[in-house]
Each structure stands twice: as structure tokens, then as C-alpha cells.
Design goal:
- Its main location: membrane.
- It is a single-pass type I membrane protein.
- It is found in: Cell membrane.
- Keywords: Cell membrane, Disulfide bond, Glycoprotein, Immunoglobulin domain, Membrane, Receptor, Signal, Transmembrane, Transmembrane helix.
- One of its GO terms (cellular component) is external side of plasma membrane.
- By secondary structure, this protein is of the alpha+beta class.
- Among the domains are: 111 residues, Sandwich (Immunoglobulin-like), CATH 2.60.40; 86 residues, Immunoglobulins (Immunoglobulin-like, Sandwich), CATH 2.60.40.10.
- 18% of the residues lie in helices and 40% in strands.
- Strands 1-8-7-3-4 form a five-stranded mixed beta sheet. Strands 11, 12, 15, 16 and 17 form a five-stranded antiparallel beta sheet that branches. It has a four-stranded antiparallel beta sheet with strand order 9-10-14-13, with no helix packed on it.
- A hairpin with a 2-residue loop joins strand 11 and strand 12.
- The longest helix is centred in the C-terminal third of the chain and has 28 residues.
- The radius of gyration is 41 Å and the shape is rod-shaped.
Length: 296
């Protein structure tokens, strides 16, 4: 073994060997594995997918599919170029006026991106002796609105807090952050709703949690990259649930009523009366003496 071969990394040797084998098998119709490239773009944005054009071609076109396995079966033609006379390509209605293929390099350009554009894209370059393919997976994303919070006090003393966010894609989960006295406290999710608009395919999300509002808390929620700043809640909370507070109020009213009744009774026993001549005299009620009491 020569010195140069000894210092060549083993993985480079394997790559060279693999390339040589694939080049020998290509003329016999053997398929070359296609590397999938992940692409991410924003809703309403623009993206370019390179076809990795090699040499001349008679037909170059792009095809789409929701899964890689069924890409060839779905046969969703997007756009392409035909150099065969009198054989124009019929562009898919979904991609008319917002796609083009560059003849110089086969690149597919898409603009005004929609959530429905999230799929696999494959480029086919047909020449006299081979078909070369490039494979991409495009993910179109839409940022959710800044979450909004609403609260509702339940009769059992728990506080329901609802986090809502709209207009995002793909579907995400709602994350909650609840802190109290520098420690995480217990809470439970009582409801979650995810609705997708049938027209633009964007998602509207809501999540509701229930927590014990007996002390001051800091709360926040997030959907994807949209996060709500921490808010203070339960800052004027009572240590008793509403049912206990109502019971205490009822008892207080009863005690106050009994006190007023006693006061009225006392006033009736000791109160000024008016004589027939119009003069007031103080009527004093003297308790009866028992027969067993000794004389004074």
C-alpha cells in the first residue's frame, strides 16, 4: 500500500468506490438514490428549488406529492419545459401565475406560497440516455398571532385561564408557564380546541387550564414562536372560595339581625312614655322579686 493511500481517510475511499459503482450501474437502468433536501419558507413568500441540471434535455418537469412514497403515483404535475415541437406542457391550475421553470438550469421558482404547497417536489430531466431527479421537501409556515389571555372565576374557587392564538401553520400545541412563589404550581388543562380554516388552511388554537387562585401567580403561554409576556394574576385573591365567603356573609347577616332584635327589646323595656297631660316620664321596668329573696 502506498503512502498516499495510507493517509487517505477510509470514508473518502468508500465514497470514491461508491461513485464508481453507481457510474457503472447507471447505463443498465439502475436507479441512483435521491437525497432529500428540506426547505422551509414563510407563508406568502418565495422559494427556488434547484434541479441540478446536467447536460441537455428533451423534457424537464417538476412533480409534487404529499408523501415521498406516493410521489410518483400521485402524478401532480407542477410546471416544466418541453423541447419537443408541438408538445406544450399544461401547467397545473394551482400553480399558474405563481410558478416558473428556468430553462438555463431547471430551477423551479414558486411565489405567493400557501400552506397547501407543503409537499415533496421532484425534478425530472429526461434526455436521450438517462433521467436525473432532484428531491425536495418544502415546509410552508405561518407565524401565529401573539397569544391573548382571558380569565373566568368558577364557583368552586378555581380560576380558568384561556390562551388563544390564530392564523398559524402548521398546527402547533399551546405551551403554558405558571409560576408562583418561585416554584411551579399544579394546574390542569380542561379544554383544547384546534380549528382549521377550510379556505386558507390556517389554524386557530385555544387552550384552557384551571388553577387554584389562592396566591399571586405569574402566567404566560406560547404557540410556536409566538410568546405572551408574563402577566400577574390572582394579585387580590382571597384565601377562601366563593362558597365559603357566601356562607360567612350569611352568618354575619344573621348575627347582625339578632343583635338588632336584642337592642330593640332593650329599648322597649327602658324607654320614655307620654302622660295624658303631654309630659314625658321615664318608664322603668323593675324585675319582679322572688318570694324566696330576703327583704332588702
Amino acid at each position: 500500500m502506498s503512502g498516499d493511500m495510507a493517509i487517505t481517510p477510509i470514508y473518502l475511499q468508500l465514497l470514491v468506490l461508491s461513485a464508481a459503482i453507481l457510474s457503472l450501474l447507471r447505463p443498465f437502468g439502475c436507479e441512483v438514490p435521491i437525497q432529500n433536501t428540506e426547505i422551509q419558507a414563510e407563508l406568502g413568500g418565495r422559494v427556488w428549488l434547484d434541479c441540478d441540471l446536467k447536460g441537455s434535455f428533451t423534457l424537464l418537469y417538476w412533480q409534487g406529492g404529499k408523501t415521498q412514497e406516493t410521489l410518483d403515483e400521485e402524478d401532480l404535475f407542477i410546471n416544466g419545459i418541453s423541447r419537443t415541437p408541438n408538445r406544450p406542457l399544461d401547467i397545473n391550475e394551482e400553480f399558474k401565475n405563481r410558478s416558473r421553470v428556468y430553462e438555463t438550469n431547471g430551477t423551479l421558482e414558486l411565489w405567493n406560497l400557501k400552506p397547501s404547497d407543503t409537499m415533496y417536489y421532484k425534478c425530472y430531466q429526461v434526455s436521450e440516455d438517462s433521467t436525473i431527479k432532484s428531491l425536495y421537501h418544502l415546509n410552508v409556515t405561518a407565524t401565529y398571532t401573539k397569544p391573548a389571555l382571558t380569565t373566568y372565576s368558577r364557583d368552586d374557587g378555581l380560576l380558568e385561564v384561556t390562551c388563544s392564538s390564530w392564523g398559524g401553520f402548521p398546527r402547533r400545541g399551546v405551551q403554558w408557564f405558571v409560576l408562583g412563589e418561585n416554584n411551579s404550581i399544579g394546574w390542569q388543562e380542561v379544554n383544547q380546541t384546534a380549528l382549521q380554516d377550510p379556505t386558507d388552511l390556517l389554524w386557530n388554537l385555544t387552550s384552557t387550564i384551571a388553577l387554584n387562585c389562592t396566591r399571586a401567580l405569574r402566567i404566560s403561554c406560547a404557540v410556536g414562536n409566538a410568546t405572551l409576556a408574563e402577566l400577574d394574576i390572582c394579585t387580590q385573591s382571597s384565601p377562601f372560595p366563593p362558597s365559603v365567603i357566601i356562607a360567612i356573609a350569611v352568618v354575619a347577616v344573621l348575627v347582625a339581625g339578632m343583635s338588632v332584635g336584642c337592642l330593640v327589646g332593650i329599648l322597649k323595656r327602658v324607654c320614655p312614655t307620654r302622660r295624658s297631660d303631654g309630659e314625658l316620664e321615664l318608664a322603668v321596668v323593675v324585675p319582679l322579686r322572688s318570694t324566696n329573696d330576703p327583704p332588702s
